[in-house]
Amino acid sequence: MFCHLGAVRRLCLEKILLQWVLQARPLSGAEAVNALRPFYFAVHPDFFGQHPREREINENSLKRLNGYLENLQKPGFKSFKPTQLTFYVREREQNSSGVQESFSAAGFRAVSFTLHTRDLLSTVLDILNSCSLSTEHVQSVNSQPHKEVKGTFYRPIKWDKTYYSFTGFKDPEEELKQAQRMEITLISWLDSSEKSAIKKLRKSLPLREELNRLKDELTHQLQLSDIRWQRSWGIAHRCSQLHSLGRLAQRSPEVLRNIKGHTVVFSDCSGMSATGHVMLGTMDVHHHWIKIFERLPSYYKLQKKMLLLEGRISHLLGGIQITYIEELQPLLTLEEYYATLDAFYNRLLNSKLSLHPRSLRGLQMILESDRYAPNLHELGHFNIPTTCDLATLQWFIISKAQQARENLKRKEELTVMEKELISASTEKFSLKQLYKEPSISHAQMIDCCKRLLEESLPYLQGMHLCISHFYSVLQDGDLCIPWNWKS
Known about the structure:
Layout: H1 2-23, H2 29-35, H3 37-43, H4 52-72, E1 83-89, E2 100-103, E3 109-115, H5 120-130, H6 136-143, H7 161-167, H8 172-181, H9 186-221, E4 226-229, H10 235-251, E5 263-267, E6 271-272, E7 278-281, H11 286-316, E8 321-322, H12 334-349, E9 364-368, E10 375-376, E11 382-385, H13 390-428, E12 433-436, H14 442-453, E13 464-468, E14 472-473, E15 479-482
Parallel strand pairs: 4-5, 5-7, 8-9, 9-11, 12-13, 13-15
Antiparallel strand pairs: 1-3, 2-3, 6-7, 10-11, 14-15
Helix pairs in contact: 9-10, 11-12, 13-14
């Protein structure tokens, strides 16, 4: 009887909630940020400093989510396509939803879900429910008087301390304050991490040699241009992927003839990338890889069509070069990139742009589907949204052309300076390797190396050093230090 009453009560509550959702006014951007705050703190990359792979996945997923949320606020924007996201969530709640979820022993869980909603309120509820986070506070946010505030997502908002005592969530501001009070210097961190790093490094040495051997053999055997990895997988994982490709090459050598001269990238999915690299999904079996190799001739045809389309867009936009920058853009398949180019080209054809065919030669632009307004990147290229107003675009490019040329020149200078400083730092500290994460800019790397060269750091001899945003000793002994380390 009591179980029956409980079920009836739950049913009534669900009906009331559904009615409230249907009748509720739309959320403003600021209110959506407020409602999603528990989610942002649950997946914030800063809390994954000891887990670089999970940190990287959360950073990339947050960028895509923010683009989706911004699109929801654009007036008249109707072109939505389902967006699949994966996050590592710090809370270890039991999952009652239908999303994919897996737990780890590190205190977080992986959650995958697909967004296909068309308003902020439904999207916020979907995100919170998918991550098994409470939605009770959303009702109070939505019941407040509407006040539109311009702003971007993913920024801190102060909550009353009673919220954390009531929900049981940890107060992330207190956690961050505690971390700041315990802020460490580069010397003290290296001193405390040296033994652990050396132990892991020595353990990884045989695998590092094996990795280099396998990569050289397969590159020579298959006549590849290069072999790369999309993510910062461990050395053992990389060796396993190369062994798998090697076994396929032994069993079906005729299938792999098509990849001669290509770069192979082990990634999250299989296909051909926007830059023409052959992508092999690390979760796919040989059967899927074979299909990709067999489809390469059709990819070549699509690649030629893509280059032709880039040329046509360039002609309509004054000779500006259409480019795709792997380090700064999300990984796109050739099909996805071609569809983006085609949609933008069709909009240009129907516009009344009047640019001299060669007025913008020497400049560069990239197309992005998650922006609304064009902007000029510090490295000199234009970020152009596929859905931006074309009249505004013409004015913006012309007015920023000179600054873009100066930025491109500055980029060349920074690239040369960065290379010289990496070489000098590697030599001074007798490093095996000095590299940086893709998210570290030229200016940040230069500043870091200049400051390193002023120090005496015997701890670094023979080590692999990665310039990042946080301190960490990776599983294979690589040392990660923030570019703005404290002395």
